[in-house]
Amino acid sequence: MESGVNILKGTTTIGLACSDGVVLVADRRASMGTFIASKKAKKIHKLNSHVAATIAGSVGDAEAIIRLIQAEAALFEMNNKERMSTKAVANLMANILQGSKYFPYLVQVIVGGFDKKASVYTLDPVGGLIEENMASTGCGSPVAYGVLELEYSEDKTVKDNILVALKAMSSTLQRDTATGDGLCVVTITAEGFREYKDEEVDDLLKKLALKKIK
Asked: Taking CA 125 as the corner, what is the angle to CA 44 and CA 28, rounded to the nearest 5 degrees?
């Protein structure tokens, strides 16, 4: 980064499309170099009742694009009496990022949602949009992908793939100093958006015989 500019960054996020929904997982640590700037960073954001996004990169830029998309999704729902689909949300965000490429939002985003089926999209800072079955962003993603490539399957249920995502995050924690300080776990199914409580996440970790992620 440019000298004299402090940008909160450093993270691992995961998005998985499952047979019955989507799993999104992110840690809560925000760092500036080797300094842990926050232990409560919010990295998964609800965009409407069935779509959410994970963020990695500059916190200010990420929060700005999320606020904009949340407003656009709410306006669309008010005018059309139906919610935006996951694909529509991802395309809108891609268009905004592409239109801002000369002064880009310094973000990596995973958009996940459930319409008639689960879908996951990745976006880069200048609006590159790719549909994926599984995705990970942030500096810890190379480690996470090692576990996901072995154990993830789109045919698994949300219940099964949550455990895969947590195992990948636990592995990342062992090797990436910018990942840590607890986890946010979200699922999106036909019933809608659900954010797991800390106690529920701890119970899931116990199933894997993993220690509480710090």
From this structure: 25
Q: What is the CA radius of gyration of the chain?
A: 16
Domain membership of residue 188 (yes or no) is: yes
- Residue 189 known to be catalytic: no
CATH code of residue 37 = 3.60.20.10
**For residue range 157-174, what is the model confidence (pLDDT) as tens digits?**
999 999 999 999 999 988
Give the pTM. 0.91
In a domain, 8, yes or no: no
Any domain includes 177: yes
Q: Centre a 10 Å sphere on the Cβ of residue 1 and count the other Cβ atoms it contains.
A: 11
51 in any annotated domain:
yes
Query: Taking the CB of residue 206, how many other CB atoms lie within 10 A of it?
Result: 11
Out of 11, 54, 86, 172, the active site residue is 11
